[in-house]
Amino acid sequence: MIHLTYGDTLPDGFFDGSVRRILELQRDNGAIPWYDGGVIDPWNHTEAAMGLATLGETEAARRAFRYLMETQLKDGSWHGELGSAVPMDEEEQRFTGDEKDVPDPVRDTNFAAYIATGAWHHYVLTGDVAWLKTLWPHVKAAIDWVVAHQSPHGDIRWAADEPRTPEDDALITGCSSIYKSLECAILIAQRLGEKSRDWAEARVKLGEALREKPHRFDRTWESKERFSMDWYYPVLTGVFTGKAARERIASKWDIFVAEGKGCRCVMDQPWVTVAETAELCMALLVSGERRRAEAMLSWTHQWRADCGAYWMGYQFENEAAWPDEKPAWTAAAVILATDAVIGMTPAARLFSDRHLAEAAE
């Protein structure tokens, strides 16, 4: 296994196959679907753009951001998934139907918020204030829309309140991701001299809900605790840091981690997923466990396909890559985790640390 540590130089061409995979998937209008024939959602699309930018594919990343700007709805949100199942113009790959024609067009708050994380990451990489200003109106609209869905208890509704999404509930993983996106949105506002007090207050309330009000999550559906993301995401995004973060990671390590293989997606299946393993690597960095993070990152590379891209996961009882897909977001997650570990770009610390006060120690 390839074992990289802080200050190491990335081997020549190491991620060529991963970058090539994302670029192959990217459409002419900038959209990056999950995989061949897959749908597009704003979160995974943005993650893929961040992976491209990290390795110097700046223009391709900006085409991805332009796609977000062009498809943002008037209220600041996006449809959760667009792609082969949605009415699209075959040449332009743009939504052509009415909202009522879209199969389950959920407008997810977590997906909408993530543009702020992508925008700040891109700025830290490039230092381009003009581009940040271009993205700002879209970031502001998205974050204002997300914060409008916060309850008095601090949790944020998982999706827009409309007939097709009647569950008035919140998700731990989704809200944790929003917590990070609020951090990035506030940093953008501070850099541009814009107001962010309401967002800062919303972030504090959200952090308190995630740490102190577990009853506010999974109220109307089965608990999501079988998914590893509910375990490590509050650490990855800075809701918990220091001792509290280490205790949370230790609490379910033996349940979710398959030694030498990676992080399980769900606790009851012999299946590790590469993106979750890369994200857990970054959560370990946030908690101060660098050696474990380096080991976790090293495990991801055994699941690289011959083309250099990464399989979604590995079913270790059947000893087979499964499913038979190499998603754009999986490649991006490994790229971002590698940057966080070895510090190859100015944006390396974005996912290895917290950058605003408020997190529990």
CATH class group: Mainly Alpha
Instruction: Kindly report the average pLDDT value.
Output: 93
The Cα radius of gyration reads 19 Å
- Count of discrete structural domains: 1
From the helix content, strand content and strand pairing, which structural class follows?
Answer: mainly alpha
Largest sheet: 3 strands, antiparallel
The span between the termini is: 33 Å
Order of helices and strands: HHHHHHHHHEEEHHEEH
Helix content: 40-55%
Low-confidence runs: 84-102
Number-wise, the strands total 5
- Count of helix runs: 12
Can you describe this structure?
With 361 residues, the protein is mainly alpha-helical. The chain has one domain: Glycosyltransferase. It has twelve helices and five strands. The strands form two sheets. A three-stranded antiparallel β-sheet has the order 3-4-5. It has a two-stranded antiparallel sheet with strand order 1-2. A hairpin with a 3-residue loop joins strand 1 and strand 2. Helix 2 crosses helix 12, helix 4 crosses helix 6 and helix 5 crosses helix 6. The longest helix has 21 residues. It starts with 15 loop residues before the first helix and ends in a 19-residue tail after the last helix. About 5% of the residues have low confidence.
